[in-house]
Amino acid sequence: MTIKNYKPNHSGRREASVDAFDDITKVEPEKSLVRMLKRHSGRNNQGKITVRHQGGGVKKYYRVVDFKQAKLEMPGTVIAIEYDPNRGPRVALVQYTDGVKAYIIAPIDLKVGDVVMSSDKAIEAKSGNRTQLQFIPVGLFIYNIELTPGKGGQLVRGAGLSAQLVGFDGNYAQVKLPSGEIRSILKQCCANIGVVGNPDRSLIRWGKAGRTRLRGIKPTVKGKNMNPVDHPHGGGEGHSPIGQKRGPQTIYGKTAMGVRTRQPDKWSNKFIIKKRKK
């Protein structure tokens, strides 16, 4: 993927850049692998907003991505690289030898015509292949990592991300995640070999508010611009400071910025060997 810059013909283009989509080989999605995506706009079943700043956006179908890749010992040929509006990386359309098609997350160097395979045994350490952690050589980069055997990949699925297998300890593999955290994961959990594709996505500059609205993100208003009834920072004349408070607060009155929110007695703490970077 490359980033494309236009001439600054108007203010919305001056600081903006777009995805060139030069790695896309197929425009229309596979009809059997798309679903309707119901919009909730950050609201729960009572209609109350539980996640702020969500709503609107362009209509889009959901591509059913196979995070498990449970067809073992069955080669799959990549027949297309497609754009997925619901995630940062590209998705690869794979057709297995039995004729079944599926979407998988495309690694950085996967091309049309390549063959990928999933196995529960030792397998060639090739980008896109999937196997258990115990069969992956130490030092390789991996993505789409399971936390529970057979559940499907949950970690490291974003554009340009990768984790690194750094060692083994008993029945656990030690994996260094993109955040810098080193975590113990069961050796029987599966992962794909390689680096997630579309690494240049983080370089896109959206340029104007309208493009952000099209992504389904609504504007964020500063608390100090609100009234005291609406936010702890509200009130005062003009652009006033937050007042006699020990530090910034959320709209709900909880301390924000730099406060650890992870539960100190969380059940998964025992699997964390080294904490992530602050």
Overview of this structure, please?
The chain is mainly β and 278 residues long. It folds into two domains: 3-201, OB fold (Dihydrolipoamide Acetyltransferase, E2P); 221-271, Ribosomal protein L2, domain 3 (Irregular), CATH 4.10.950. It has two helices and 15 strands. It has helices spanning 11-14, 209-214; strands at 3-4, 18-19, 34-36, 61-63, 76-82, 91-96, 101-105, 115-116, 130-132, 141-143, 163-169, 172-176, 182-186, 190-193, 272-274. 22% of the residues are buried.
Task: Name its key features.
2 domains; mainly beta; 7-stranded antiparallel sheet; 278 residues; 15 strands; OB fold (Dihydrolipoamide Acetyltransferase, E2P); 4-stranded antiparallel sheet; Ribosomal protein L2, domain 3
CATH fold description of the largest domain: OB fold (Dihydrolipoamide Acetyltransferase, E2P)
SSE order: EHEEEEEEEEEEEEEHE
**Overall average pLDDT:** 94
CATH architecture type of the largest domain: Beta Barrel
Q: What is the rounded Rg?
A: 22 Å
Report the structural category: mainly beta
Low-pLDDT windows of residues: none
Distance N terminus to C terminus? Answer: 30 Å
Query: What strand line-up does the widest sheet have?
Result: 9-14-10-11-12-13-15
How would you sum up the major sheet? Answer: 7 strands, antiparallel
Helix content: under 10%
- Superfamily at the CATH H level of the largest domain? Nucleic acid-binding proteins
Task: Characterize the overall form.
Answer: globular
SS summary, helix count: 2
The structural domain count equals 2
Q: Quick one: how many beta strands? A: 15
Instruction: Tell me the β content.
Output: 15-25%
